[in-house]
Amino acid sequence: MEMSRVPILVILGSTGSGKSKLGIELARRFCGEIISADSMQVYKGLDIVTAKVTKEEKQMAVHHMLDIVDPLTYFSVTDFRDMVLPIMDDLILKKKMPIVVGGTNYYIESVLWKILISDPKKNSQDEEDQTRMVLSDNDNKDRGGNTQETLEKRETEDESSPSKKMKIDGWTREETNEVLHRRLAEIDPEMAQRLHPNNRRKVIRSLEVFEQYGLTHSEILKTQRLAGGSGLGGPLRYPNSIILWLRCDKKILDERLSQRVDSMMQAGLVDELLDFHHRYNQQRIKSNTSPDYTKGIFQSIGFKEFHDYLILPEEERASIKAEALFKRGLDDLKMVTKRYANNQQKWIKNRLMRRADRQVPPLYVLDCTDLAQWKSNVFDKAVSIISAILQGEKPEEKPINENIENQKNTDSSNEMQRYCEVCDRIFIGELQWNAHINGLKHKKILRRMRRMEKQNPEIKSS
After folding, report:
1. Is 260 in contact with 334 (CB distance < 8 Å)?
2. Which residues partner with 36 through β-bridges?
């Protein structure tokens, strides 16, 4: 049996779907090691709020990328990728299966696809935007040509002079949307045609790319596609990867998540938050800095929801006000957890299933709705799929993306700007454009304009 046939196994699914459980079971079955892909579990401490595996579960299988970063440290998806790839390559050399498990999908994305260019804004807290990188890895140097070599050279040069990245004539971050878009149109007219002037974040992103690398964003995207990539990233890093998607009936999952939050509360979630919040604030007050809940582990679900309760003076914790704040925090935590789970499902559908232009590994769905049927519906099917691939055979289970219907036929990075003279509005891509011209508002304005033209033919001729 040649383990290298499956260099990487990825387990996806909503929070609370059983990813950690399946990962441990498969690691034990196939001599694998688990790589946690969770942006909050990389931080030390706060085991309850980040839903880490227990000490007993850690003993059942080797886990990587848990408890490795100070809780107040900024840790990006690029940092994650750069730490994980050597671990994975080492496991493959040892013929051990790397099993990537976690709910931070953009962490998983950074490992699955070859990505070179890091976000120029090194201190950005918008980690998700960092994964919308724009080229393949060094492995494609021979196919990327001079553009690839220039990018690598620019990236190396810029490391020693970060201030250089923010110097480009003609724009600053404080400019209006119109000015920023006009500046982009001068530098990179092709990319400007794809972006709405009000899409400030993406316009700035494209300006930053040119600023850091001296190449236009559109030129880099073209190079990326030549290397086998798509508008979302480069080609697959490990061509023999497979993905297991744990999927659960939404109503059942929502109930399970509510019970999970209740269990976390019983395990001491609030005391854990209070303790950490107290220790952090002591440090903050000593250093005379303002509280910041957008950094480090404070981004995790729980802190924001219980914020008003956490900042209460200790003598007020038994008051009616505290009880109401606690109840509101609990309700908000359940709501946000369910919303997060729903967003995880949308990510899988939009970035894996509905991309006609992207290389996506075989995606196998495992139904985890009925936990009483876990062995037959989840574990046994997973074992069957992996065993067949390891033996060079085709699994009996069919990947859901093998003959996927309703694929997106357009790549968002190719969509062009359309202008409606009737409504004086800009739209990006065919979907937006068709929705507009078939919409009631556009048709109403168009009818009014035609009536005016009939009443006064001079309007039409002018």
Report:
1. no
2. 101
